[in-house]
Write a structure and sequence with these properties.
heterodimer; A: mainly alpha; two-stranded antiparallel sheet; elongated; B: alpha+beta; Ubiquitin Conjugating Enzyme; 2 domains; four-stranded antiparallel β-sheet; 10 helices; disordered N terminus
């Protein structure tokens, strides 16, 4: 009997001949059915592996091998339908009860839902309501603070405060804008639904149409005269349209950055691909200089080797002033939001 | 009759209408002039001459401590169609002896009425500038070369002449110089009109011989 070799299908629990098998159906201690990939931790079959996933101590590897655990022998040797070998991997339950738990996270217990009727007003069911009734938030006047979660409460209050601050800022900006009138047409800019033309270097208020028209008068007056503020004669290189009146230096800087970013998305109509000196602003141009293959000129200087006709230059200035239409516009809500951030 | 005169004398306003912005701005400016209290103290006034608001009459008082003190000077203001992007045309209708104002036509040499115009300037600020020009003449950048030359070489005679002009044309107070009056009378006796006599004598430094030579040669 002992001369017969051991059936290797029996060892893995898969011999289909059963008792009629010519090989020895017996487990010997010398041939433990341990998955060697699992020992290295790389078995890709996981619980579906037909070998035993048991940890053998490294010291045992060289010396006497530890006997396989009885449980695994029993399950492997009994050819029942529930044996791990017969259960497809996708049907098997994962080790933990949830993925979050398996990943080592704390168990997630969803908060009981707040009563939506109570949130906005009064729930007709009152105390008999099956949902939880939230606590009143002082800022938004809604009963949305969860009584069971301090985290939810502080998060909501933070959101509410930010929203409130935004509203305050908008109200202030609106108030500030309402008092301003254009120094050229003398109309109230806000009342007439006009946009403000924010000058780069001074705080004088004009509507964008007026200041652009004035800056476009380069053929009648000296360019230096029209490029300066009509009130204080402070020179400004550009005008930025904005729906609200902006005076503070930081806010102005932010507006200019946003304006430049916006302009950078539009193609400069004076730039000729692969050429030098067509756009009088060179690399300082607000608009996009891009070649058809997507490359951009690196060292692009304003026309040095040819003298530009003054009329052409003033025409360019005019175009630059007038070209910026609706999409160059700064949305003032966005502006304020980004301002708060 | 007066309206007709204005109508035909200014073909520009007849052919093309004033822009909307110009009209509303002038209206605002007039309201401002009427309501503003400090305008009375500075002695500036604006009067509308027509309903189109293209032509106005400005009045300024001569600044104190100047030969123009006590005088009331009228100015003729013409509003261009694309005001305020173009300066108003302002000139003196009252005759004045000043290096930066033509003694013959009343044209003013003032940078803000020419290349240094700014769209934010108003009729009020323009008139204030003209008033300060009266107080501080700029003979180095003259409109009337004869006056400027006199101002530079004979400042005292210039002052006396300017004062006489103010008294004579701008209802300035004080006693007119009897010597000047005497010379004017002499020229008038020769059949020269009063305005021409004053102007010629002033230009010739109140030298009667030179004036007669100038007039009759």
């Amino acid at each position: 009997m002992s001369s017969r070799p051991i059936c290797r299908y029996f060892i893995s629990g898969q011999c289909r001949y059963g008792n009629e098998c010519t090989f020895l159906h017996e487990r010997s201690n010398d041939t433990p059915n341990v998955c060697r990939f699992n020992e290295r931790g790389t078995c890709q079959y996981g619980t579906a592996c037909r070998y035993d996933h048991v940890k053998t101590k490294k010291s045992n590897k060289t010396g006497v091998r530890a006997p396989p655990p009885i449980a695994s022998i029993v399950t492997n040797s009994c050819l029942n339908a529930n044996a791990p070998s017969f259960v497809p991997s996708w049907l098997k339950k994962p080790e933990g009860s949830s993925y979050a738990e398996a990943a080592g996270a704390a168990p997630f217990i969803p908060l009981p839902t707040l009563c939506p009727y109570n949130e906005l007003g009064n729930c007709a069911k009152g105390n008999d309501c099956e949902y939880i009734h939230g606590l009143l938030c002082d800022l938004c006047k809604c009963k949305v603070l969860h009584p069971l979660s301090v985290e939810q409460q502080s998060l909501h209050i933070a959101q509410c405060t930010a929203k409130h601050e935004l509203q305050m800022k908008m109200a202030f900006a609106e108030q500030r804008s309402k008092e301003k009138s254009c120094g050229i047409c003398m109309e109230n800019v806000f009342e007439k639904n006009l946009r403000f033309g924010i000058l780069e270097n001074c705080k004088h208020c004009f509507c964008v149409e007026c200041i652009r028209e004035w800056r476009g008068k380069g053929n009648e007056f000296d360019t230096k005269t029209v490029r300066s503020c009509p009130e204080c004669r402070q020179h400004s290189d550009f005008v930025v349209p904005c729906i609200i009146w902006i005076e503070e230096k930081e806010e102005k800087e932010l507006l200019f950055t946003m304006y430049r970013e916006n302009a950078k998305k539009k193609k400069c109509k004076y730039y000729v691909p692969y050429s030098v000196g067509d756009c009088p602003f060179g690399n300082k141009c607000f608009y996009l200089h891009e070649n058809p293959d997507g490359t951009r000129p690196i060292d692009y200087r304003p026309g040095e080797n040819r003298r530009r006709e003054p009329e052409l230059l003033s025409a360019y200035f005019e175009a630059l002033e007038l070209e910026v239409n609706g999409d160059g516009e700064i949305d003032y809500i966005n502006f304020l939001i980004s301002n708060i951030i | 009759m007066l309206i007709l005169l204005i109508w035909y004398s200014d073909p520009q306003t007849r052919t093309t209408g004033m822009s909307n912005i110009a009209f509303s701005r002038i209206q605002r400016e007039c309201r401002e002039v009427v309501t503003n209290k400090d305008i009375e103290s500075t002695g500036i006034m604006i009067e509308m001459l027509n309903d189109q608001l293209t032509r106005m009459k400005g009045t300024i008082n001569g600044p104190p401590d100047s030969p123009y003190e006590g005088g009331k000077f009228d100015l003729d203001i013409v509003i261009p169609d694309n005001y305020p992007f173009q300066p108003p045309k302002v000139k003196f209708s009252t005759r004045i002896w000043h290096p930066n104002v033509s003694s013959q036509t009343g044209l003013i040499c003032l940078d803000i009425l020419k290349d240094q115009w700014a769209a934010s300037l108003t009729l009020r600020t323009v008139l204030l500038s003209v008033q300060s020009l009266l107080a501080l003449p700029e003979p180095k950048d003259p409109q009337d070369a004869v006056v400027a030359k006199q101002k530079m070489s004979e400042p005292q005679l210039f002052e006396k002449t300017a004062r006489f002009w103010t008294q004579h044309y701008a209802k300035g107070n004080g006693q007119k110089d009897p010597e000047f009056l005497h010379k004017i009378m002499k020229l008038k006796d020769m059949g020269v009109s009063e305005d021409q006599a004053i102007s010629t004598l002033s230009c010739c430094g109140w030298d009667l011989t030179r004036s007669t030579d100038y007039l009759f040669s």
